[in-house]
Structure formats: C-alpha cells, structure tokens
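re: the backbone from monday

yeah here it is again, tokenized this time
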C-alpha cells in the first residue's frame, strides 16, 4: 500500500493528513485560498513533502489515494455566489420554491426575510405538459414553450438550468427531452434534472434540492476538475475521491453528476473519524463537536453511529432532501466576529475568515474575534499558532476590545474578552442541546469528543456548563476531519418512488426496482475502483400512515434482494415500532403506506488504523506558566508541551496544553490523562457536574 492523503478545506485552514505505507501519520495545515482551494492544498502537500526531504512530485508519485472534503458547495451557499439559475417546471408550479410548504425558521417573527433567491421569478418558467401520478399523459409537453424558455435563459446569461416536472420520477422521458431541447438552443448551459438529483416525491423538496444542485454545481464541478488536473500535473496518477454528505466517499465523476452531495462534507468527515476513534478507545455514545475558524458543528453519535437523515435537511435555508449525516452547524469559530448589537454583546455568525482573519493575525483584520479574545485571556501562545508557523501580534488586540466592546458596554477589557468567550460557549452549547435534548437525550449521559483547531480550547468549559463528565480530545483533533475522509466507506444512496399500501404492494415490482438500483450502485462503485464482490446493500422502505406528510425509513433484511411476504410483515411491524419510538404513539389498525424505496450500497475503503501514540519528545513537558483567566480571575497557569506527554501522563487543571495545531484549556478541578493512542481523556475531579 502506498501513501494515503486526506484533505479537509475549512474556512480558515486547509488540513492535510498523510498516512505512510508503514502507518506513520504526518499532519499539516495551510492557509485556505478561497479564490482557488487547490492552491492551498498543493501548498500544504508541498510542505509535507519538504519536511520529508522530497519533492511534491515524488510524494504524489508514491501516493495511492487522495480523498477530499470540500467546502466549495457550502461556501457557495453561504456567500450566495453560485451560477445564475433558471427553472423549467410544470405549468402552475413556478412558485413552489417560494411557498416552502408555508415553513419559516422563526414562525413568531414577521420580520424574518425570505431566503436569498436562487432563481429569480422571471427566470422560473412554467411550461404546459402534465402527467398524472401513474405517468399517464394528461396534457402533452409543449416543446416550443421549452425552446422559448431556453432562449430566454441564453439571452439573459442564465448559465445553469434546473428542470423539475411533475411526476418525472414516475416517467423521466419529458425531463430528458427538455434537457435535449435546452442543449440544442443553449449548448453552454449546465442542466440539472430532478429525477436524476432526487427521483421521488414530494414536490417542494425535489424542487429545492434540484435548484441547489443547479446553483452550486458549476462551481463544484469546475473546482474538482481543476484540482484533479493540478494533481495530475504535479505527478499524481491515481484515484481522487470526494467526501459526501451521507458519510461516504465517491469518485469525482460520480460527484460531478450530482454536486449537491458535497454540502457539509467537511464536518461529516470529522464525525466519521470520531466513530473510529471512539471504537478504538471504547467510547460509543458521545457528542462530536468541531470548532474551526468559521463554524461549529455538533453531532449525536449512539452505538458508534451517527443518524443519517434522508428528508428534512436544511442548508442555508434551502431544503436538501438527500441523505445527510445529522449535523447541526452554526456560525461560531475562532474567526467569529464579536460586536455590540442592540445594547448587548453578540458573537458571530459573521467571520473574519482566513483573509483578513483575526486582528492578532496581523493581516489587516480590524474587528474583534473569538481568537483575539482567547489570546487576551491567556489561552493561546502569544508567540504564534501551529508551532509558530502562524505568528500572532497582540499589539492591537487590547485597544480593539476596549473600543469595540468594553467601552460601549461599560466593562473592563478583561470582562469584555471573557464575555466573548462565554457567549460563544453558550451559543455552541445550544447547538449541543439541539442534537441531544431536542431528541429526548440527556447530554450528561454522553461523552464530548472535541476536535478542530479551536474545539479543545472551549470544550472543557462547555462540558462543565452542560454537566458532561468526560471529554475526549483525539490526538489528531486539529485535522480529524481530514483523517475522517480516509476512514469513510464508499457509499451510494438511491431513492425511488413506489407508492402503495404495504399489504397490497406488488412484491415482484419492488424486487425488480431494488435489483435495478443495485445494478446502478455497483456500476457507480466500479468507477471508484472497488471490488464489487465486497459491496453490501441495505434495503429501506419510506413508510407513513395515510394522510401523513413525512416518512420513516424502515430497513428490512432482504437476503439476495428477495422481497417475500414475510419481509413485508416485518416491514409493517417494524414501522409501527419505530413510529411509537419516534412519536410516542402508533396506530396498528391503520394501513401502512409505502412511499419510496431506498437503497444504501457500500464497501469499505482501505482504512488506516488509529495510530498509537508516538514516543514522547525529550525534555520537560512543562514549558513554564502564563497568566490566564479562569472562574472570574486571572491566575498563573502551567503550560505544557503536548508532544512531550506520553501515555499515562496526567495533567491537573487549570492548565494549558499546547499541541502543534491546537490548544487544550483545562478548567480547575479537571484532569487530563493521555491514553495509549495519545488522546486526552478529560474528566472532572468530582465527577459529573451539573
């Protein structure tokens, strides 16, 4: 086995993990280059190569696999910088995307604006032509109306077209014909067909998902193709895989067919890695939290697995009805901007990002950020981050905190900085409550696994507030999302509409649909150069009671894909059980409606093992002390050099442990023990606190 490379592009830093043939692990961070993320990736790989005494071409020449989690789609949605979009839809349905099922994020606030528009109404064009729910033609498709729409898009520079026709998931022929017509009239346009993006009901979710695919697609495709081209130029000749929102990886070609699947792929890579770390350390129930430079993500993991939601997922206020690992994301990171708003202190969601970044980066930043507050509070090394690679300049931080926060609020500078730290902690804890308490789970019964460059700075204080008694900081915490891309499986998710009562459904037709879906999945996986003989399949039925809108996915074992009456009985019984578990009631006397079939196909990648702790560096682990803020006071706090700590070493809080790419801030009465993998297991001296 050659070298494996995992990459996670964040809002501030690009993280890289390079696993050697002997299992050795090298990590680095490079500044993210928003204009072209490939530049930051190649710069980071160049740093790794130089550290090993070789050229970039030599490193890539002995590399077998590159796996990449990209934020291109996320950043496109955040900055609303996607392709100019148009929509061709069935007559009478042009406003589906605006109606949003009548749903809004804050139902009691009439001032909440509508989401930013992806396709302006004048470029949402409905055309005559109607199928019924069985695919029968009620009104023929008006092809001339389609041509007029295509010419209108061409004349106004609308470069990406979404096509969403009613019941196209039953018969996709009309959508394919629309694409053909658009390409005849406007060959340069990108076209997204709803039956290829999400071949199932309901209508709003399919429209939203297809429009987002159309909006982010051109940028994602152009970026991935450019990255592959650059890697080829530098000497890499093997496969490039991309992290998906469903927790698996896929080939670049497969992702380019449906770019929307890359949304949130970076944070999800971290969740996949935490499951691997948890399995190695015996922790199976935990809340995974990732704090980077721009955002904060939280995910509930039970029995070693995170929930994958297939339906009601929202990204930047648009619904994505595809399988997505259930991660809550908020704008809270090291670069989050603190300011006085309406007479109070607010932190985020706006971020200083990588450029100009926090004030202390010395790159022209002028607004106080979380990182600036942490530096002033004594938590960060004033000589620099990333083992000194990122120099810090504290000279303007105090004056900025004073003028922007302290003076307007009548606080001291120390109180203002502490306020920034506490408020961002409170915001992040609300995200943790959303993934735990709102699902009926007590966060105090879970461990907290903290990663990302900033996660370990805040997690010990957060855990104390939440009453969580155990915190795990993986040794690879600063680059865990990048490592996670290398531990993910190859995954293909498919959905197909198949509506009918479970007791009346045609079992042979269901079996035929699953067989066709298996064939398509294996074809896609073959493109990722995997052994088809190792592919596993999970069969799911999207079920509901009559009159309900949302479905529950029920997985049923189907040996060799055969759908028997016994399997149908298991499906019905299991649905009633799941409904009661999720909604506290079931009505077994009512029929069960099958709305869709889902198939999850996967095979394991060549996963590197969780590496054991390396031998500790020689030298005294205590570097000295630094004045830092704890529990309302500034105290002399011992500072430890993390790489000099070995398995079994215990650090008593308050203390600061400086790892090369992150810092762990232990609170008073907490202690951290280094385990055999080099992870920090942090517990409270008195047990769980409430």
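seq for it, each position gets an aa:
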């Amino acid at each position: 086995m050659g070298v494996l490379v995992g990459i996670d592009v964040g809002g501030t830093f690009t993280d890289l993990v390079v696993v050697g043939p002997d299992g050795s692990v090298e990590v680095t961070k490079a500044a993210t280059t928003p204009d072209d993320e490939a530049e930051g990736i190649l710069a980071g790989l160049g740093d790794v190569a130089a550290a090993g005494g070789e050229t970039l071409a030599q490193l890539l020449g002995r590399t077998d696999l590159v796996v990449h989690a990209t934020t291109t789609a996320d950043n496109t949605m955040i900055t609303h910088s996607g392709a100019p979009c148009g929509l061709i839809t069935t007559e009478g349905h042009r406003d589906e995307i605006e109606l949003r099922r009548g749903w809004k994020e804050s139902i009691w606030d009439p001032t909440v604006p509508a989401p930013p528009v992806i396709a302006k109404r004048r470029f949402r064009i409905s055309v005559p032509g109607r199928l019924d729910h069985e695919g029968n033609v009620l009104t023929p498709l008006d092809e001339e109306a389609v041509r007029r729409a295509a010419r209108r898009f061409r004349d106004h520079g609308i470069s990406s077209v979404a096509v969403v026709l009613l019941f196209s998931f039953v018969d996709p022929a009309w959508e394919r014909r629309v694409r053909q017509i658009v390409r005849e009239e406007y060959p340069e346009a990108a076209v997204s067909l709803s039956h290829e993006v999400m071949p199932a009901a309901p209508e709003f979710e399919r429209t939203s998902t297809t429009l987002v695919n159309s909006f982010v697609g051109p940028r994602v495709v152009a970026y991935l193709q450019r990255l592959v081209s650059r890697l080829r130029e530098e000497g890499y000749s093997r496969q490039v895989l991309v992290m998906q929102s469903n927790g698996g990886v896929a080939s670049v070609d497969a992702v380019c067919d449906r770019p929307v699947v890359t949304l949130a792929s970076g944070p999800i890579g971290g969740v996949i890695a935490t499951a691997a770390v948890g399995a190695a350390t015996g922790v199976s129930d935990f809340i995974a939290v990732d704090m980077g430079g721009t955002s904060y993500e939280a995910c509930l993991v039970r029995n070693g697995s995170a929930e994958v939601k297939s339906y009601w997922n929202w990204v930047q206020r648009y619904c994505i009805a595809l399988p997505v690992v259930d991660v809550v994301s908020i704008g809270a990171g090291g670069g989050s901007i603190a300011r006085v708003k309406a007479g109070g202190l607010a932190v985020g969601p706006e971020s200083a990002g990588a450029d100009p970044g926090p004030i202390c980066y010395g790159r022209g930043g002028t607004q106080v950020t979380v990182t600036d507050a942490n530096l002033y509070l004594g938590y960060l090394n004033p000589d620099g981050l990333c083992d000194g690679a990122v120099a810090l300049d504290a000279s303007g931080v105090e004056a900025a905190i004073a003028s922007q926060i302290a003076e307007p609020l009548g606080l001291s500078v120390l109180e203002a900085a502490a306020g920034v730290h506490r408020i961002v902690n409170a915001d992040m804890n609300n995200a943790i409550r959303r993934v735990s308490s709102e699902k009926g789970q007590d966060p105090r019964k879970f461990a907290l696994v903290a990663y990302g460059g900033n996660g370990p700075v805040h997690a010990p204080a957060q855990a104390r507030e939440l009453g969580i008694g155990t915190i795990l900081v993986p040794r690879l915490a600063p680059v865990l999302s990048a490592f996670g891309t290398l531990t993910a499986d190859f995954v293909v998710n498919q959905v197909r509409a198949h509506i009918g009562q479970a007791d009346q459904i045609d079992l042979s037709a269901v079996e035929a649909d699953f067989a066709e879906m298996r064939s398509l999945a294996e074809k896609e996986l073959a493109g990722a150069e995997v052994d088809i003989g190792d592919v596993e399949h999970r069969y799911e039925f999207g079920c509901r009671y009559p009159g309900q809108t949302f479905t529950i996915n029920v997985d049923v074992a189907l040996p060799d894909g055969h759908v028997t009456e016994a399997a149908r009985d298991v499906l019905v019984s299991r649905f009633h059980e799941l409904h009661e578990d999720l909604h506290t009631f079931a009505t077994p006397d009512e029929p069960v409606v099958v709305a869709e079939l889902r198939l999850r196909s996967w095979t394991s990648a060549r996963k590197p093992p969780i590496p054991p702790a390396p031998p500790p560096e020689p030298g005294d682990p205590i570097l000295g002390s630094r004045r830092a803020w704890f529990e309302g006071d500034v105290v002399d706090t011992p500072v430890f050099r993390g790489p000099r700590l070995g398995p079994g070493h215990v650090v008593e809080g308050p203390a600061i442990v400086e790892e090369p790419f992150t810092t762990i801030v232990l609170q008073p009465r907490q202690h951290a023990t280094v385990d055999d993998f080099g992870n920090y297991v942090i517990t409270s001296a008195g047990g769980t606190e409430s």
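The first strand starts at residue 3 and ends at 9. The CA atoms of residues 135 and 258 lie 25 Å apart.
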